[in-house]
Amino acid sequence: MERLDRDFFRRNTVEVAKSLIGCVLARRFEGGIAAAVITETEAYRGEDDPASHAHRGPTPRNRIMFGEAGGLYVYFSYGMHHCMNVVTEEEGQPGAVLLRAAVPVQGHGYFRANRPRAPEKQWMNGPGKLTAAFAINLAFNGLDLAGPKQEELIILPGAPLPWTATPRIGISKGVELPWRFLADPGAASGLAGSWETQ
DNA sequence: GCGAGGATTAACT
DNA sequence: GTTAATCCTCGCT
């Protein structure tokens, strides 16, 4: 199956965030592949979005958000967690979709190894947990998910899932924008058993 | 150079 | 429901 290409990501950030629900995040580990269906995303844009890291213009940290669509923007937060985003919009226009949660569908052993203390249902039901399960860290910042060369981390198209839009979580500004998208629990549960989001 | 705060999580009471 | 953990980034001096 072919990965999502740059044209998929080079669109309005909110549209990409919706479209990613149901798509499959796939990671190549030594010896095999692990994959999970994306069930929760949030859209972050630029000047019009006070909650976005890109709101006040480019900095060394957020420069990836201003780059080519399909890039991976990883940042470190609260002294202990990483969060991963996919860059959207035309180059020069900031935008990224935060991947917040997913349901494992392949390579459970890898996820279990990366989340040794958590039960399966809580392996990746939050942004920090998702990056932990996929072993994503700052070394992945700037990785080109749409690049035909790299095989470490890609996103594959999946069956579209019904979703709901809600306000974003954990932010103090821009709280009124309904830019969080989460798969309908019923639809997601058919993929790999029940799941829940905190 | 310094200080504040953060797109969170897990372990408490 | 409350809070500690923990460190990078940014903005200001």
Short descriptors:
DNA-binding, 8-stranded antiparallel β-sheet, 8 strands, alpha+beta, disordered C terminus, 198 residues
Helix tally?
Answer: 5
Average pLDDT score: 93
Q: What structural class should be given to the helix and strand makeup?
A: alpha+beta
The shape, in one word, is globular
Q: How many beta-strand runs?
A: 8
Beta-strand level of the residues, as a percent range? 25-35%
Q: What is the gyration radius calculated from CA atoms? A: 15 Å
Low-confidence stretches: 193-198
Helix content: 10-25%
Q: Whole-Å distance between the termini?
A: 32 Å
What are the secondary-structure elements, in order, as H or E? HHEEEEEHHEEEH
Q: What profile does the largest beta sheet have?
A: 8 strands, antiparallel
Protein architecture, described:
Helices cover 17% and strands 28% of the residues. The chain contains five helices and eight strands. It has helices at residues 6-9, 13-20, 108-114, 127-133, 185-192, and strands at 24-29, 32-44, 72-77, 81-87, 96-106, 153-156, 163-166, 180-183. It is globular, with a radius of gyration of 15 Å. 46% of the residues are buried. Mean pLDDT is 93; it is low at 193-198. The chain binds a DNA duplex (13 and 13 nucleotides) through residues 42, 44, 51-53, 56, 59-62, 75-81, 83, 85, 98, 100, 117-118, 126-129, 132, 138, 168-172, 198.
